[in-house]
Structures
1.
Amino acid sequence: VQLVESGGGLAQPGGSLRLSCAASGFTFSSADMSWARQGPGKEREFVAAISWSGREEYYADSVKGRFTISRDNDKKMVYLQMNSLKPEDTAVYYCNRNPPFASWGQGTQVTVSS
């Protein structure tokens, strides 16, 4: 199993970023997927999830209305469009299957600051 996140960086409050996750080593098209994040000094927390078909999406209350999860089963990719970013969104973002594999990718750092 390999999960490779990318697309993080520095954004200003109110800005946008799009995260990508390339998955391999498992049957992606039948796997529910999710994004989680871990802020400085905090536990890893759920951000968003998407069903294997892409028809169902779930979001943490803290990101609902601002973030959108999507997937491309042909490309084995999961995305997280993040809009109206806030400083409290600063974290390392990870993707994983839902329920998660024991091993996680390296994550991608998102920093929201002016």
2.
Amino acid sequence: QVELVESGGGSVQAGGSLRLSCAASGYSYCWHHMSWWRQGPGKEREFVSMLDGTTRYADSVKGRFTISTDNDRNTMYLQMNSLKPEDTAMYYCTCLGYWGQGTQVTVSS
């Protein structure tokens, strides 16, 4: 059983920053296949970033978001800078089909 718990969301103005966290427990193999996804209002869920030996970003966040992990704490992070209103979404961490409950990010103009 894998448990993923996101935190760190909030409301910021455009240009601001937030750091999301995803605390993972359970199946250790999952740790090597972690990713961030998001779902904005009225939109489909979309890929944001992943870390599975390589680091990948959606074009829409490249250069502004940074994914990282703290192996000692089994925690994955998403540093989000230069936030835009279009980044407003529920952000989820996931691995191997397991999903967290999400954390809301709201960016006002």
3.
Amino acid sequence: VQFVESGGGLVQPGGSLRLSCTTSGFSFSRSSMRWFRQAPGKERGLVASISTFGVTYYVGAVRGRFTISRDNAKNTVYLQMNTLKPEDTAVYYCSSDQYWGQGTQVTVSS
């Protein structure tokens, strides 16, 4: 099983990034997917989730700015992040069940 995140980087406040997490060896279409993030010195926390039926959930800090989506044909989950703030700086991980990716760094700074 592999979860591979990509799309992180350095962006100015107010900017946008789109994260991708491509999976293999995993029953993607039958699994809910989640994005987590971990900032320096803080615990890892849930950002957003999407069910097999496409039902989404967002934590309050990102609601209205982030959008989670999935493409079952590509075994990929996305996180579109708009109006980024410095407090969004973190390593972002995708996850499902007991599986995790290696993370991708997002830095929001001027």
